[in-house]
């Protein structure tokens, strides 16, 4: 059976206004699983960037890659504005795709 491809650009965040990661994939569910389970060592596992805060679907991978490159060139505030235009509370959109939501990140307070 041939797997259906859904080209997609996605933005992950470590927490609201935290570290951002922009990626492209043809299998968003599979890629989210990889990020959340630390299957691929690297930036997202090192900085715990697992909250899906935005994704855009495309008809073909070529357009998805062009959009990914465009977003990666943007200033950080433009990326934040883009996220907040449709997800002002920085909810974990992966919950709507069948994943448990990433909870709030706790920062040690020294007490």
Features:
endonuclease, nuclease, 111 residues, GIY-YIG endonuclease, GIY-YIG_endonuc, GIY-YIG_endonuc_sf, alpha+beta, hydrolase, globular
Describe this entry's structure for a reader.
This protein is 33% helix and 17% strand. The protein is of the alpha+beta class and 111 residues long. The protein has a single domain, classed as 3-Layer(aba) Sandwich (GIY-YIG endonuclease). A 3-stranded antiparallel sheet has the order 2-1-3. It is globular and about 35 Å long.
Map the helices and strands.
Elements: E1 8-13, E2 20-25, H1 28-36, H2 43-46, E3 51-57, H3 61-73, H4 76-86
Antiparallel strand pairs: 1-2, 1-3
InterPro entries: GIY-YIG_endonuc (IPR000305), GIY-YIG_endonuc_sf (IPR035901), UPF0213_domain (IPR050190)
Pfam families: GIY-YIG
Family: Belongs to the UPF0213 family.
């Amino acid at each position: 059976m041939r797997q259906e491809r859904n080209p997609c650009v996605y933005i992950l965040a470590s927490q609201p206004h935290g570290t951002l990661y922009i990626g492209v994939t043809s299998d968003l569910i599979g890629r989210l699983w990889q990020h959340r389970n630390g299957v691929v060592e690297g930036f997202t596992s090192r900085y715990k960037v697992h909250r899906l805060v935005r994704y855009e679907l495309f008809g073909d991978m070529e357009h998805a890659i062009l959009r990914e490159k465009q977003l990666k060139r943007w200033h950080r505030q433009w990326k934040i504005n883009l996220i907040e235009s449709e997800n002002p509370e920085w909810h974990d959109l992966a919950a709507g795709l069948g994943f448990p939501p990433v909870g709030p990140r706790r920062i040690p307070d020294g007490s």
